[in-house]
Amino acid sequence: MSGNDRHCVVCGRVADLDPRSVIGDCCAAARDHVVSMQIDQRNGQKLAICPCGWSHRAAPGRDGNIQRDEAVEAHWRAIVMECS
Ligand SMILES: [Zn+2]
Ligand SMILES: [Zn+2]
């Protein structure tokens, strides 16, 4: 055991993750959903846009980061559930 096991953000299981990845092999279906993070220049809102057509708009600032991350993880969970 390395002592610093990393967890798949989709299912929460300990996973052998690539240093740049947050999605384990357990939830590989979500890897097709590479969400791009953008900022709406007009109002500072955080946008998360997935190539499948899903998108999310969160508040500006730190709270928006948390909201956005939660929304993205929820999207990935929905994808994995559909595929299992
Ligand atoms: Zn997983
Ligand atoms: Zn998607």
Protein described:
- The protein has one domain (5-83).
- It is of the alpha+beta class and 84 residues long.
- It is built from 1 helix and 5 strands.
- The protein has one helix at 61-83, and strands at residues 6-7, 14-15, 36-39, 46-49, 55-58.
- The longest helix is centred in the last third of the chain and has 23 residues, at 61-83.
- The mean pLDDT is 92.
- A hairpin with a 6-residue loop joins strand 3 and strand 4.
- The strands form 2 sheets. Strands 3-4-5 form a 3-stranded antiparallel sheet, with helices on one face. A two-stranded antiparallel sheet has the order 1-2.
- It binds zinc ion (ZN) (2 copies).
How many strand segments? 5
Question: Average pLDDT across residues?
Answer: 92
Count of DSSP-assigned helices: 1
Helix content: 25-40%
Biggest sheet strand order reads 3-4-5
Report the major sheet: 3 strands, antiparallel
What bound compounds does this protein have? Answer: zinc ion
| Strand fraction | 15-25%
Termini gap: 29 Å
What is the general shape? globular
**From the helix content, strand content and strand pairing, which structural class follows?**
alpha+beta
